[in-house]
Amino acid sequence: PAQVSLLGIHFIWTLDSEDAIFRSKTEKAVFNATNRKNMARLNDMIAMNLQPDTDLRAHGAWTRKKLETLITVDVHQRDVFDELAKRKLRDVRDFEWTKQVRFYWRADDEMARIAIADVEFNYCNEYLGVKER
After folding, report:
1. pTM, entire model
2. Mean pLDDT, residues 121-132
C-alpha cells in the first residue's frame, strides 16, 4: 500500500539524514555517501516507473500513481538533503534540520512519531497516500 511505502520512505530519509549529520563531525565524505544512497533509491523507483503500463498493472491499477507519488516525495527529500549538505550542517539541533518534517519509529512505545521544529506527536494514520501533487 502507498501509505506504508510513503511512511517507510520518510523513516529511511530521516534515519539516513540524521545519521549523516551526526557522522559529519568526523567523516568528511558522509554527505556524499548518503546522497549516493538516496540517489540509488530514487533511480530504482524511476526505473520501475519507466516500465510499460501492462507490466505495472500486474501489481495493481494504481501502481504508476503510487510510484509517481513516492518519486515526488523522494525528489523533495533529495533537494532538502542537498541543501543541508551545502550548508555543512553538523548538529541535529540546527534549525535547518529541525524545520524539516521528520518521521521516527519509537520502539519503546511501538509508535510512529512525527517531529517538526520542537514539536513531536504520534502518527495517527493521517492520510499520506496517493493523490495529485
Report:
1. 0.89
2. 79
Q: How far out from the chain centre does Cα 3 lie?
A: 13
34 in Cβ contact with 19 (< 8 Å):
yes
Please report where in the chains the cell 530514487 appears, as a residue.
42
Average pLDDT over residues 51-63: 89
DSSP 60-83: -TTHHHHHHHHHHHHHHHHHHHHH
Q: What is the DSSP letter of 52?
A: -
Q: Which residues of 11-48 are buried (b: 16+ CB within 10 A; e: fewer)?
A: ebbbebbeebbebbeeeeebbeebbeebeebbeebeeb
